[in-house]
Amino acid sequence: MPVSTIGDLRQHILTSRNNTALKSELGTLVQELTSGKVSDLTSHLGSGQTNLAGVDRQLEMLGRFAQSNTETGQLLSAMQTALAGVDGHRATTSGALLTIDASSSMTQITNAGSIATYGFEASVQSLNMRFGDRAMFGGTDLDTNPLSDPADMLDALRLAVTGLTTAEDVGDAIDAWFDTPAGGFETTGYQGDALGQLSKPVDANQAVQIGVRADDQAIRDTLKALAKGALAGDATLALDSTNRQDLQRQGGVELLSAAVPLAGVQAQVGYVEGQVAEASVRITAQESSFGIARNDLVTADPFDTATRLQAVQLQLETHYTLTARLSRLSLTEYLR
C-alpha cells in the first residue's frame, strides 16, 4: 500500500499548486490567442501604459465629437426640412395669388386669401418645429418658439391695417409691421434671440455657427407677402374688390421674388452641413488612426502566443504524466 508521510503531503500541495498555475496560464494564452488581446496589460506595456491612456483619452474625445456631429447633422437636416416646407407654401400661394386679375370675383379672391392664410399659418408652424425639445430658428434661445401663434400675428396685422382703404396703404402698413425696428414683428412676432448664433463644436479646433433665425429678412419677406394675400381675402377689411385684387397680385409677385433669398437661407444651412460632414470625415479618420495605434499596444503577437501555448501544453502533459507515476509509488513497488 502507498506510504503517506509529511513529505508526501508537501509534494501533493506543490503538485496541486503547479497544476493550477499551468491551467491558469493555459487559459490565459488560449484567451489571448482567440481574442488577439493581451490579458495583462500592466506587465505587457510597462511604462508604455501612459501612451495607452493618452490614446484612450483621444478616442473618448473623438467619440464625443462624433456623437455631437451626428446630432448637429440631424438638427441641420430638420432645419432644411422646415425651410423646404416654407418654400413649398411660398410657391403654392404665389401661384394662387398670381391668378387673380381684374376679372376675378370676390369668391376667387376669398379662396386665394384662404390659400395664403393656410400658407402663412403652415410656414409659421414649420419655423416653430422643434428638434427634440429644442427650438431651431430662435438663435441661442432653445426653449421658446421663435414665432408667436400665427393667428395672433394675423390679428395684430388686421389691427395695424384697420381703416385703410387702398392696397398701397395696406401693403405699406404690413411692410412697416414686419420691417420697422422694434415694430410689431420684432416685439410680438419674433420671440427668439435676435442677436445670437448657435455655436456647435465639431472637433477640437473648429466650431460651426448656425446663424439662420426666423427673423431673417428672407423669411420676413416671405411671411409678409403671405400676410398680404391672406388679409386681401379678409371680408372684415375696408377694401373694395379692385384693391383686394391689387394687394393679392402684389403678394404673389413678392412671393415669387422671395424664392432666391429663401434659397440663399437654405444654402447657408447647407454650407454648415458641409462643414459638419467634413469634420465627421476627419474624426472618422482620426478614430481609425488612434484605433490602429491602440491595437498595436494591446494586441498579442499570435506567433509568440501560439509558441508559449504549445510549451505550456507540453508542461501540463508532462506534469500529468509525472503525477500519475508518483501516485503509483509504494513500498511494495520499490521492493520488487
What does this structure look like?
The model has no long low-confidence stretch (mean pLDDT 84). This protein has helices at 6-35, 41-45, 49-97, 106-127, 150-161, 167-179, 184-189, 217-232, 241-257, 259-298, 302-327, 331-335, and strands at residues 130-131, 134-135, 198-203, 206-210. Helices cover 72% and strands 4% of the residues. Strand 1 and strand 2 (134-135) form a beta hairpin. The protein has 336 residues and is mostly helical. It is rod-shaped.
For the largest sheet, list the strands in their spatial order: 1-2
Number of helices: 12
Which residues form runs of ≥5 with pLDDT under 50?
none
What is the oligomer described by this structure?
single chain
Shape: rod-shaped
| Number of strand elements | 4
Alpha-carbon distance between the two ends:
13 Å
- Rg of Cα set: 39 Å
